[in-house]
Every structure is written in structure tokens, then in C-alpha cells.
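May I ask you to comment on the folded chain given beneath this request?
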Amino acid sequence: MSSASEKSPNAPRRPQARGLATRERLIAAAESLFGRQGYERTSIGDVARKAGVGVGTVYHHFVDKRALLLELIDRFGDRLEAERRSEEEIERFLGNDARYAIQRWLMSAFDRLRNSPSLYLVALAAAESDPEVSRRYRRIEDLGVERARRLLQVGQWRGLLRSDIDVGAAAFLIQHCVEAMATQLLVRRHEDQDPDLIVRELADMICRYVVRSDGDPPANA
């Protein structure tokens, strides 16, 4: 017969549930603070206060601040992967004017990065000096390339984009051009440049590269 001290296998595991809830609070606090005041200016104590726990609790779940950042980068990649658009959604996004859709996409993405706290910029900055952050950030880059590739592919099928471009190479170039722009304007902050002008010029350059003009052959030619 089982002793009275043995726990039922169906008994609620409250300490574990509390631990998971605390871990999630720490991750949410770190993401908020990193995005708002930057990774370097955020301390473990800041994260603890934001989450409403002691500093020792943070170290119980994460060995250091960098471990929090790596966890956040992995989760950011998970979110991007889960947001994969269907072909129908991409078609609706492109509409009948691919040039307008691409320009609007780049301008609105830049405005969000500039005006709202963003883990993307934190990861982009940290990847320049930390090899492990750079390795994990590579997944985010690859997802961005894949998203651009699918958009270009659907645009070609609909005859909106040039049929003579290689969508894989074009997607790679677009992703890294956008990334370089964000690095220079929002991470390194070149104050002598007009950000809006640079974004418009980049959008125009990308559109001249990929969008089909009236003189181009049709996609099925």
C-alpha cells in the first residue's frame, strides 16, 4: 500500500507552475526594458524590479543578462516563423500595385522600428559584437529572406514582378539592404542623414529592381 506521504500523480504541481510563470514574467520584463532603454543600460536589478522579484530569482532562472537576450532572440524567431503568410495573404498584400505595396511595407516597417521599442534592433546591435548572438540572429535573417522570397515568387506568378530576376538572390539582397539601413540609421544613428529620404530611396531602388514595368516581357513569356 502506498504511504500517505506519497503524492498522487494527478496532484497539481504548483511550485513548477509558479516557476514557469515567474520565468515568463522575467522574459517579458527583459524584452520591455531591452527595447525601451537598451541592452547595455539594463541591469539584472532592473529586470528583477520590473518583474517584481528579487535579483536571486533572476539568477535562479538565467545565469546572466546575456542568457535572457539569447532566449528572447530565439522566441522572436519563433514568432516570425509562426507568422508565415499564406499565398492568399501575400496576394492581398500585393493587390494590383506591387510598387505601392512594397513602398508602403518598407516605410511602415521603418516607422515601427523608429517609434516603438524593438527587440529586433537590440539583437541587430548585439550581433555585431557577440558571436553567439550573431549565430542565433542568423535564423531571423534567414526567415526574413524566406519571407521576401515568397513575396517575390507570388508577385512573379501574378505577373506583377519581373520574370527575369532570381527570387532567391533578390530576396537575399533585399533583406540585407533593409538590415544595413536599419543598422546605420537606427543602431549607429547617423544624425547627418535624413532617414525618411533614405528609406524612400531604398524603397524606390528595390521597386526598380523587382517590379515589372510596361515594357518588360510577361512572366509566362
Remarks:
- The first helix runs from residue 14 to 37.
- Confidence is low (pLDDT under 50) at residues 1-15.
- The CA atoms of residues 192 and 221 lie 46 Å apart.
- The chain has two domains: 14-62, 70-210.
